[in-house]
Amino acid sequence: MAGAPDLTLWGVGTSRTIRAHWAMHELNLPYTTKPIGPRTGETKTPEYTRLNPRQKVPLLQDGDFCIGESAAIVAYLSRTYASPGRTLIPETQRDYAAWLEWCFFIVTELDSTSLYVMRRHSADALGPIYGIAPDVVAKAGEYFREQLRHVEHALRNGRTYLMGDQFTSADILLTTCLDWAIAYGVGVCDNAHPYRERIHDRPAFKLAVEANRPLAPITPTPSKT
């Protein structure tokens, strides 16, 4: 694409917002950060609601174009701003299909169906908003560990990344889920630990951690009843 990109990323402080920051740094893209947090009231302002009626973070503005959902943002950046030596999507048709499978698996089975359910119903997370349900949290943790067998099997052959020797956005999605699971006390498979350590050593990950750090502690606003 001609000219310097005009990128603005809204959102910091979560396992999902870091994905977009991370992709930005992997692709060496200049961008502006709007460090708003989820459930703080900042996503409900008229300005932000005009950009994103869903009132969620992260949100990417690319000039006059807006896109939400962390996995979609990462895929968009990967496809739009890849350059020689900096690409996050495989090129061959079958590798691309395998990459898609990993991305969909991670955001559905590991994130939304497992980890977010735990967050939504944990007493020390969003449970006071959506309902505290210890049994649901426990079952979601069990389901996460069951689904992680797919990752364990893939990493058994000693591959460096999910797609072999190429780091892709699927690794961004998986690593954020592994970090999230460990923070929640959910066990991960043994071969995920060295994989995670390799990913954490990437300079772009370290830059993303700093970029994703909120300016102040994120305190959810009480829901109105």
Features of the shown structure:
4-stranded mixed β-sheet; 225 residues; 51% helix; alpha+beta; globular
| Helical amount | 40-55%
User: What strand line-up does the widest sheet have?
Assistant: 2-1-3-4
What is the ordering of alpha helices and beta strands? EHEHEEHHHHHHHH
Judged by helices, strands and strand pairing, the structural class is alpha+beta
Distance between the termini: 48 Å
DSSP summary, beta strand count: 4
What is the overall shape? globular
Strand content: 5-15%
Low-confidence stretches: none
User: What composes the largest sheet?
Assistant: 4 strands, mixed
Number of helices: 10
Overall mean confidence score, pLDDT: 94
> How many whole angstroms does the radius of gyration measure?
18 Å
Structure notes:
With 225 residues, the protein is an alpha+beta fold. It has helices at residues 17-26, 46-51, 70-80, 93-121, 127-130, 134-147, 149-155, 169-183, 192-200, 203-211, and strands at 7-10, 32-34, 59-62, 65-68. A four-stranded mixed beta sheet has the order 2-1-3-4, covered by helices on one side. Strand 1 (7-10), helix 1 and strand 2 (32-34) form a beta-alpha-beta unit. The longest helix has 29 residues, at 93-121. The chain is globular. It starts with 6 loop residues before the first strand and ends in a 14-residue tail after the last helix. The model has no long low-confidence stretch (mean pLDDT 94).
